[in-house]
Amino acid sequence: MKIKKCRLCQSEHIEKVVDLGFHPLADTFLPEELLLGPEVSVPLQLGLCRSCGHVFTLYSVSAVERYQKQDYSYDSSNSKVSIAHFKEFSDAVLAVKQPEKNSLIVDIGSNIGTLLSHFQGVGYDNVLGVEPSGNISALAIKAGVPTINDFFSTAIVEHLKGLGAVQVLLSANVLNHADDLGALLETAKQVLAEDGVFVFEVPYLLDLVQGTAFDTIYHEHVHYYGIQPLSAALQRSGFSIFQVDRLDYMCGSIRVYTRLGGTHAQVVESMIENERSFRLYEAETFRAFMERVRKVKTTVVAHLANIKLAGGKIIGIGAATKGNTFLNYCRLDADVIAYVADASPLKIGKMTPGSHIPIIADQDIDEAATHALILPWNIAPMLQAKLSHLGLEFYVPQVETLNNATH
Ligand SMILES: [Zn+2]
Predict the structure, then answer these.
(1) 295 falls within a domain
(2) What sequence ranges are listed for the domain Methyltransferase putative zinc binding (predicted)?
(3) What is the Å distance from ligand 1's center to 75 Cα?
(4) How far is the CA of 220 from the centre of ligand 1 (A)?
(5) Which of 9, 75, 240, 375 is the most buried (most CB within 10 A)?
């Protein structure tokens, strides 16, 4: 479905600023039996709202299609980086708010419960995850994190109210997936204690554009937040921001601390000034962004073709979701990349969506492989260190191409 109004302010003044062609769902790694069926393929385009500055996908894929139709493959415990990140997240929240030990702490889109498990680890036992994916919420419950298998919507308000007011409401990388942010904030408002806090993390639009992180764009990421439109949307829903942290996580994110009522702290104004001085909400900025994106594609395709012509065998490292936007945008398939090696049991044995490259376990990398293209470039140093004994020549195209372009 084509989106005709801004997903935050409902303005009809929207302009297409990014076009990456047709893409499947980047998070849906395919088991062999699904290869015979039709695969979702939807234009991956971003629009810029001329009224509030919000950036969002112009074509929507239903949330049920995204999270409940097939097993969801992202498991927040699957990398050391994310485990350490969630520990730091819980420490940061407890630094601004130390609720009573029996306080209700809820995580929206809790995945397998990694974030909540850190609160459990310091004595907060009254935690609850809300997770729409059936297979993932079952894993959370098995790991000892109480979890409701549902979307965070008005349908579960009564259930939550029965447990008491929420003192700490959390979400990591979820508000960018929510089709209707206003509805999510309304639900949050209904369940949050008057003196409670709602702390969430989302990827930051400024980092995406500055870092040319086009591979973090995919259908599951509906929203690309800048502080200007986000703070306006929060204010409309009755929330104020009292702190913002900038993080390296997910190629650049913001951790936004909010509470009910009040006005935004000064940091909001200074971040908006910074965004405006970068011209973040201007179409011209995105035209230059798309030029850099095309440069990455043509450089990578030529480089890989040369390796193949010289007799090399190229493999991929890390079946990350963002890798799928990269592979599909660059039109790379199993003719070029023999397979992708990954450590997650949720992905091994499946195929990458769209590009249909088989995913194998790290330990099954064969001796004929000569070159390794690292897909999750934000954790490239860690992956290179882990696989350094294999004697592969590593290639991190997004980083190398862009570094060369600026020299
Ligand atoms: Zn808008």
Answers:
(1) no
(2) 6-65
(3) 32
(4) 19
(5) 375
